User: Fold this.
Amino acid sequence: MAMPEPPFDDLYREVILDHAKKPRNRGRLADRTQHAEGMNPVCGDEIALDLRVAGDRIADIAFEGQGCSISQSSASMLTERLKGTTIDEAARVAASFKAMLIAGATPAPELGDLEALHGVAKFAVRVKCALLCWNVLQEGLEQARRQLARGGT
Amino acid sequence: MKMSTRMALLDVERIREDFPILSQQVNGRPLVYLDNAATTQKPRQVIDALVRYYETSNANIHRGIHTLAVRATEQYEAVRGKAARHIGANNERDIVFTRNATESINLVARAWGDANIGEGDEIVLTLMEHHSNIVPWQLLARRKGAVVRYAGITPGGYLDMDSLREAVGPRTKMVSVVHASNVLGTINPIAEVAEIAHAVGALVLVDGAQSAPHLPLDVTELDCDFFAFSSHKMLGPTGVGVLWAREGLLDTMDPFLGGGEMISLVRPDHSTWADVPHKFEAGTPNIAGVIAFGAALDYLRDIGMSDVRAHEAAITAYAMDALKDVPGLSLHGPTDVRDRGGAVSFAIDGIHPHDVSTIVDGYGVAIRAGHHCAQLLMRCLNVPATSRASFYIYNSQAEVDVLVEALKQAVEVFSRGDARTAV
Assistant:
């Protein structure tokens, strides 16, 4: 008797597995201007982000962490997408990403490859995995804004 | 003292007829429920006992004169003896009903601990404890300026008895240890632990949350002073726990919570306490839950705990062997089924436990992934989390086969990324 195949192609897209196995921009930045970290106490996933902000732009970004493929690939794709963007653009991408996962919004074009994480929205218990690095980013961006307001770098 | 462990399967087909929840489909496939260390499913007999109580006997217990109150009280009190017999205790007066095993341990940490632990005294735990047998003692230590020490674990997943002997000293007042690990499955040699603890005058609390559902028990042989366990992990409802104490101990202890049920006389400036065990049961308890727990204890008695153990040993041995077919899978904990219960934790190379759990759920298989409320043990194993399958009386070898196939699919899904990498 035929049983339905589980819908993993939506969740574990190849681009996600690729980022999980070969994370981009992984490590620390010696010349970072911002550092933020966070964890999901329920599952133990951890993400730390280093930013080097020059003017209003994210000149460099790197992450470290441990956890499931969703949390780690989300962080890897975040760094790839945001390197070189302005702080405001990074905040817009973050808002679009959250809208896609929390509100189930159609992926905005500006998300680029991050669209691959769209399928996570169907797995309610895994949404927090994909969002972890974005919550950490938010803290990093707030730090950067405060620094800008003080007239730093 | 290692005895041979009998392995014999129960009539799973017949048992499953008693469990309505197990006949459902999950994600289009038959449910394979392998999360029994978290909570077990409930047989019709337990569900019926809950309904029957509310339909025929519901009343507040004790003090009532009317017929329903007397009936409810009799049904509630009758479970005390059943709970005592389940762990080989002979006096139902030594049984206190709580909300869960966690509350049972907290009761001891407060009602015994506050009076018997002073500054510089030591409480000895092990690194394989559930958080419920760590945090109450940390809180007690903070209140009293006492010290919490830990016995370690051997690389094979056993309690390191040498490190326990080192941790226990003249200032040790309490040794609180898990009977069967919810992660490693390890069954600890409680009588040996008790000998070490009693030699320095310390008491022994046993966290039996993972042993009371699965093993024939005799608290006299274990030689412990307190034994805590929980209804919902052994076919009963949630919201009911049990504390057993060695005869006479409860009489020496102050109340845990104050309120109705637990008093004898209340005057403006003081009160006197009801006799044990009611002294420790303040407020209206989970009457329906306790009565239905009685039905769960009856169900297990009718099967026989040695047959429960034999079935789980057989399934666990079968599973540990079958799991070897999954590429990259390694098992945590003892490999000798004589030394372990039916909680089987494992790792798969390159796949995080949460990903494993999501994928097997797609095949209708319920396992648990995470730190299992044992963060100290996770650090010991040097892993952030494990995947865990845990078995009970209604699980079959065919279900283990479904788990193994689902795990192979997980490996398959994650190998796709490699194919792309190779291009």
